[in-house]
Description:
Residues 2-148 form the MAM domain. InterPro entries: ConA-like_dom_sf, MAM_dom, MAM_domain-containing. Pfam families: MAM. The protein is an all-beta fold. The protein contains no helices and eleven strands. It has a single domain (2-143), classed as Jelly Rolls (Sandwich), CATH 2.60.120.200. It has strands at residues 2-3, 12-15, 24-27, 34-39, 48-54, 63-73, 78-84, 93-95, 104-111, 119-126, 133-143. The relative contact order is 0.32.
Amino acid sequence: SVDCSFSRGVCDWKQDADDDFDWNPADQDRGDGYYMAVPAFMGHKKDMGRLKLLLTDLKPKSSYCLIFSYRIAGERVGKLRVFLANKKPAPVWEQNKGKDERWRTGKIEIFQGAETTNSVTFESERGKGKTGEIGVDNVLLISGLCPED
Length: 149
């Protein structure tokens, strides 16, 4: 498994230069490192911020599981989507509201064909809300299928 979390991860993260705003580091409540966040007041409605995880050395014709923590806190704060490079431009995962302010776990199966996925993009779309944030943390890439809960 590869630890791509932000505080101590070994992965290569890039801010997209063609989007409307950047994701920002935010301190964990527990004081244990930081996560990446988009506050509700960033940008205008429908603006996008993209954070890209560059993947190298994924083996063709094999399966991986991307596991991450996410939080969508606040009324109408926006949408969080995940895209895989080399796939059609539709998101492979999307969430637009949280039941509460708690962190939840997202899982995405990545099946490699002959062409390997070379990046995963976390995209935040700004909503109407003025308070809250969208956050992502603890990004792990493990080989094999995603474990059952």
